[in-house]
Amino acid sequence: MKEWRELSSSKINDDLLKFPLHTPMWFWYALAGLGLVVGAGFLAFAIMIGGGLQFLGYNNQTMWAVLITNFVFWIGISHAGVMISAILRLTQAEWRRPVTRASEILTVFSLATAMLMPIIHSGRPWRTLYWEFPFDFSRGIFMDIRSALVWDPSAIFTYLLSSVMFVYVALVPDLAVARDRSSGIARYLYAILAMGFQGTKRQWRLQAIAGILLSALILPVFVSVHSIVSWDFAMALVPGWHSTVFPPYFVIGAVHSGVSAVATLMAILRWIFHLDDYLTDDHFDALGRLLVVVSTTWLYFFGMDFYYGLFARDEMELGIWSLRLFTPPYNTLFPIFLLAGYLIPVPLWLIRGVRRNVKAMFFTSLLVNVGMWIERYMLIVPPLSNKQAFPFDWVTVYQPQPIEWVLVVFTFGVVSTGILVFAKLFPIIPLFDIKEGQNLRRVIQVGRRTVPGVVRE
Amino acid sequence: MANEQQGAAPGRVIAGGESLHRWGMVIDIDLCTGCQACVIACQAENNIPINVEDYFVKHRVNQWIRIERYWEGEFPNVKARFIPVLCQHCGNAPCEPVCPVYATQHSTEGLNVQTYNRCVGTRYCGNNCPYTVRVFNWDAPQWPESLHAQLNPDVTVRTQGLIEKCSMCVHRINRAKREESRNGRPMADGDLQPACAQSCPTSAIIFGDWKDQNSRISRLAKGTRAYHMLEELGTEPTIVYLKKVDPNLSQHEATVSHKTAYRPLPVING
Questions:
Q1: Does B108 touch chain A (CB under 8 A)?
Q2: By the 8 A CB rule, do A219 and A87 touch?
Q3: Core-most of A33, A166, B75, B187, by most CB within 10 Å?
């Protein structure tokens, strides 16, 4: 990284703890606005509990649609956190430091939001408890572990728990700083959460080991979660879903949309919190390069999915592809998806000036996620419309209803509210990680040479 | 025996298990006139709510049996073909392993049974059914005032938000078994009929027991016209269709159909 400014520890503390310790007025306006969106979503949920799923555009052929698209989309976004923090931590990429916590938080809240979706979508949400948790042993009620829908919650809960632990371990030193700089009830709460962190050598050692161990342990979970989500489709008998390429395709698609979401989030954070010293153009540059690689790999797997569809020359499979490519409304959605998901942003990211332009990165990464949402929609809905071999019951058009769009917006509201409230309570840029990075950069002049001041163990 | 170890475990029941019966049907497409009497009989027997026009527009029709109608040929030589499609009660059912809460299982008598109380409405089974015979209760079931006394007391009224489908009139089967044990006289083939078979004016739908080698369905299924719907999927349906007799076909085509040539039914094992 060429662009690097020496920052003193106290300036880092002041800058990054400004928002958690002092509340600006706009926070309340933002919270109220997001509260309205979230409230509208819960109202929609309440209406569906009261009146059933008749308000959705679903029918007896298209039994899964927008809500499951949302579910897959948010699980995909959640893959960014681990991609950024665990992989980059293990490979000791220096530029990850300011980005890690924001992406982990994005993981936690998008996972929680994704978990809401299947519950809202089920016919009797108040009964979903014994589907998601094996608790009723005394009555002999247990879920059927043959079902992909049982693998799903277990993978997601594992991922959610390990991400929460991951966030917490990295948060402890910062909580200690926040404790020392706050007063009153906030100090009391931070003191409890900081668990008596004093910054002794042993404590730092344990914290560092826990971080590295968790990064290594979380990686298999990260790969497995979206593979298992893809099995929801790949295990089914529906032509167009029944494909062995789905797990890697879903995982890389998840990384594609997740890293883009991190770029969007970073641009927003930099704009709101004036973090120009921390989230520099170099970070966007690095993310842009990563995205070029990830998205091109994703395109390869997308091509493979298409190719396998044609290669098998299965009549039903070919029918699904012709539905996706040539039948309205999918024939308009398809080019939009391909343009937004790959053809517009990726050539732009090849230009250095675009990667270093925060506004351009914000809009291109947003575009990717528009494309990826449509991709999931195209994966899920068209195969269901023509899934049976007999054309008698084919449904050519499934129309999403207003209540479904409310729920789509609701998910964005929930995730934004979560991140905003987290940023209000805790520093969203890790203080200790930045300081560690600063120390590692310190150089000593020895004669004519410059050597690193600190050597990594 | 494998079946003993399985005990009452749900899922695929191995043929020749402990149960005395393995219920099934033969549907003769040659006899079907597409009159929809079976659809109405099923509607009345199983307390299925009235399908209004809106449901047809939205593809939310609640029918446990439907008559699929296909047109063949160019005008004026147009022919209508009818296939009654109902739950095939597959021996290797795609809907069963995907349900996370065991709401759909296989009974020991070869029926694919739906436990309404357990269903949470994930609708995965509905997606995975290649015959699309599973229907979801999108609306709360409603009947006009005049039909309240018509409801069948033997069948539950399903609430909103769950999947339902053909039960092969399991309440009639249970009643027949109760009567059998009370009378001490085994039921004869044809004594027991589900509503669709009973109402069919041309007797195109024939119900019976595969375990009984001499039952009407066992004899019919041995003919050259017998086939399983979507046999290539390996779902092992318990319902056998008899294909249409077409005088225009050559002798060879009439005996050997393209995909659905008759193979010995893997589940019948007296």
A1: no
A2: yes
A3: A166
Tokens representing A357? 């332009």
Q: Nearest residue of B to residue A390 by CA position?
A: B131
Which runs of consecutive H residues, i.e. helices, occur in B74-169?
A: 124-128
Please name the residues in contact with A277: beta carbons below 8 A apart, sequence gap of 6 or more: A5, A7, A15
Q: What are the beta bridge partners of residue B114? A: B104
Question: Does the distance separating the beta carbons of A64 and B123 come in below 8 Å?
Answer: yes
pLDDT, tens only, B40-54: 999 999 999 988 888
What distance in Å separates the CA atoms of residue A439 and residue A212, rounded to the nearest whole number? 19
CA B92 vs CA A93, A430, B12, B233, B269: distances in Å? 52, 54, 6, 10, 16
Token pair 């409304």: residue: A329
Q: Which residues of A touch B122 (CB under 8 A)?
A: 118, 121-123, 131, 149
CB contact under 8 A, A60 and B70: no
Q: Which domains does chain B have, with CATH numbers?
A: 2-255 (3.30.70.20)
Out of A118, A146, A384, closest to residue B127 by CB: A384
Contact between chains at A60 and B61 (C-beta distance less than 8 A): yes
Any idea how long chain B is? 270
Say how far apart CA B242 and CA B222 lie, in whole Å.
Answer: 10
Mean pLDDT by runs of 10 across the 457 residues of chain A is: 63 78 86 93 90 87 91 90 79 79 90 91 86 76 85 90 90 88 85 87 89 87 89 89 90 91 90 82 87 93 89 84 87 92 91 89 92 92 84 80 92 93 87 78 73 63
Would you give the DSSP letter of residue B157? P
List the 174-213 stretch of B: residues with Cβ below 8 A of A: none
Assembly ipTM: 0.85
- Cα B222–Cα B226–Cα B227 angle in degrees, nearest 5: 130
The Cα A419–Cα A412 span in angstroms is 11
CA angle B144, B148, B149 (to 5 degrees): 140
CB A321 within 8 A of CB A313: no
> CA nearest A396: which of B59, B132, B65?
B59
Which of B54, B85, B120 would you mutate first to test chain A, the one with the most A CBs within 10 A? B120
Q: Give the type of residue at A29.
A: Y
First vs last Cα of chain A: how many Å apart? 22
Q: Which segments of A91-183 does DSSP mark as H helices, in order?
A: 100-121, 129-132, 148-181
Q: With residue B107 as reference, give the H or E element that holds it.
A: none
- Are A292 and A260 in contact by the 8 Å Cβ rule? The answer is no
Strand pairing class (B135-136; B163-164): antiparallel
Q: Where are the domains of chain A?
A: 9-452
Determine contact, residues A58/A398, Cβ cutoff 8 Å.
yes
- DSSP secondary structure of A184-209: HHHHHHHHHHHTT----HHHHHHHHH
Cα distance between residue A39 and residue A33, in whole Å: 10
Q: How buried is residue A350: exposed, middle or buried, by Cβ count under 10 Å (0-12/13-18/19+)? A: exposed
Q: A52 vs B123: CB contact, 8 Å cut-off? A: no
- Domain A9-452 belongs to what topology? Formate dehydrogenase/DMSO reductase fold (1.20.1630)
d(CA A81, CA B119): 35
What is d(CA A330, CA A324) in angstroms, rounded to the nearest whole number? 5
HSE of B141, CA atoms in CB hemisphere, 13 A: 23
Q: Find how far residue A310's CA is from the centre of its chain.
A: 32
**DSSP secondary structure string for all residues of A59-90:** -SS--S-HHHHHHHHHHHHHHHHHIIIIIHHH
